């Protein structure tokens, strides 16, 4: 009697844990804390309202939702959100990870490319004009203000740079402390 109950409990807990881990999107609001200007630009963009422009009938059509709300079913995220283009932020959203571009990319941050945009912005779309990737990037620019602010906040000339990927530990691997050298 105990074995079937134990197996059932174990199966349910594994199923629950697997489904809980399947959601690696944190939602665009989680980006807002560190990227307020990018978040404001996204909110003002058509991507933030992409699902809302669909009729009630279209909101039930998987073909429409595949572009207007592509992560709704598997990530519980409506609209074309930050993570739709930049990848699920579960692992790269931590501040210490985002400060290191290489580490952020290693843990899931995606730099969108034209091919990803063309998955929806293509000739088969019923309502789109011809797609010009360069013009589209300018239209959804949400990074210029952020980069300008970061540039203004750079350390003064001669200041020690940030330790970069894996911090001070990496420096030890490359160059051991002077006391260890002979």
Task: Walk me through the structure.
The protein has 182 residues and is an all-alpha fold. The chain has a domain of 88 residues. It contains twelve helices and no strands. The longest helix is centred in the N-terminal third of the chain and has 20 residues. The chain starts with a helix and ends in an 8-residue tail after the last helix. About 18% of the residues have low confidence.
Total helices: the number is 12
How many beta-strand segments? 0
Roughly what fraction of the amino acids lie in strands? under 5%
Structural class by SSE content: mainly alpha
Share of helical residues: 40-55%
User: Over the alpha carbons, how many angstroms does the gyration radius reach?
Assistant: 22 Å
Quaternary status: single chain
How are the SSEs placed, and which strands pair?
Layout (H helix, E strand, L loop, with lengths): L1 H20 L7 H4 L3 H8 L18 H7 L3 H4 L6 H5 L8 H4 L2 H6 L7 H5 L14 H7 L4 H9 L14 H8 L8
